[in-house]
Amino acid sequence: MEFKEKLKIYQNQINKELEKYIRKNECPEKILNNSMEYSLMAGGKRLRPILVIVTYELFKKDIEKCLPYAIAIEMVHNFSLIHDDLPGIDNDDFRHGKPTNHKQFNEATAILAGDGLLNNAYMVISEDLKNTKENLDTKLKVFNEFSYSVDRMIAGEYVDTEYEGKEIMEEYLDYIHINKTGALLKLCVRMGAMLANCAENDLNKLTNYAEKIGLAFQIKDDILSEEGNEEILGKPVGNDKELGKCTYVSKYGLNGAKEKLDIITKEAINELKEYGEKAEFLKQLALYIQNRNK
Amino acid sequence: MEFKEKLKIYQNQINKELEKYIRKNECPEKILNNSMEYSLMAGGKRLRPILVIVTYELFKKDIEKCLPYAIAIEMVHNFSLIHDDLPGIDNDDFRHGKPTNHKQFNEATAILAGDGLLNNAYMVISEDLKNTKENLDTKLKVFNEFSYSVDRMIAGEYVDTEYEGKEIMEEYLDYIHINKTGALLKLCVRMGAMLANCAENDLNKLTNYAEKIGLAFQIKDDILSEEGNEEILGKPVGNDKELGKCTYVSKYGLNGAKEKLDIITKEAINELKEYGEKAEFLKQLALYIQNRNK
Question: B99 by DSSP, 3-state: which?
Fold first, then answer.
């Protein structure tokens, strides 16, 4: 099967699973629930939950066991997008080609929808922990790592915001991305591997893979923000430069950034070599991250 | 010992425990950590963690077992205050006599500090779950109830914001407070009782007590917002009326609200009668909630 077809199947699977957590009931906070749904179902790539599932599948077949964690991470990702877009932070009007949450609803709703989605992630995890006793030690480690990774994401977002428009040292640029984007992507791969109870050696290799695609993801994001197609991206291009944001492009130039992206993608794929055919989708995912146009 | 003295001892104990979780290290997100500390240590009454401990003490002495949950709830409470104060929600400039978080730092920092504190609560819980195997089933139930109660708090805050300045039905006023303030206070008492593995019958009575002091707390808040002393309260008085907020005072008048407060406090205390001397502090707490001036 073609990579794109398989990707679509995974995306549909995630969307179907997410739908189960959407609250449609009539209640005084109905609009808040709608606004959470609006962002959660706005057409994201589902890269994070797919990473959880595909890594899990390297070792085991019963993927329903890792689904709650895949769902929880997608909720956290969407919480972070809603809050990052707020007027007090990035002040973005569009995402995925649609008005951002605070533009579609209002600022108060967007703040609380973000809070709600972050908290929802932990509701999902707590339900799974309460209802399954199997593999509990591992799941408690996963929950712990989950909460610490979200903490790193928030710290990374803070430093990114703090240094906007300021000349920054290379170590800060790396710090921002290792935390803001990298921590969550690494968590996805590690959760998939840990939940499948893989060997320590496998976990190390997959962690290396995850760190490299995390960096590649951010470099590509910076490149797209500079030279992407606004219509395909669904958000304005050139904003980073205008805001004086520190990016891999502002630091290494467009060609330097592309070169770095190429090297890091090859390194990521190299970490998978002993899994052969089984890791084909993870390999294609690395290439997808490198070559995506949105 | 006098109630006020004992209260002070508990408050100091909570403050000392909270200090352990404050991050003082040099790191790029140092100011974010400072802003979380700023709100967390701004001089709150520590009512919620104290409720956890005192309820636990009705049944058991080893209170260190319930401390992580007491700390986590105080973090959640402070997250909610930071976000509620934001310009996009209540737009408040002062709290506990000090500038609100976004006034002291800035809006981006306040949004992320709130996110960080909410997430920190789950870091604390996940550490406890990972490191102690004892009483794990109960703790998993507590974690589950914790996450669902925070969800109710966020929903209540949303409905409160949504109906600001609008004429509301009595059932909505109750809905707001049962969720916005009540859910967390009820959680505190229930967590203390559950963690001590009390009998079902005790849990029911204490839940009734908690629901009643939750309602009393909100009625008193509304009364203070109308006729409190600005200097003692540390925040402006009369804002609710100006914003056209739905409160127990706007609904029942000042005297009607005071009457309701009196009845509900007596009912709360009545739930404790069979515990005798042992529940003296919980009884005094209900009276404290009724008579506080800040």
Answer: strand
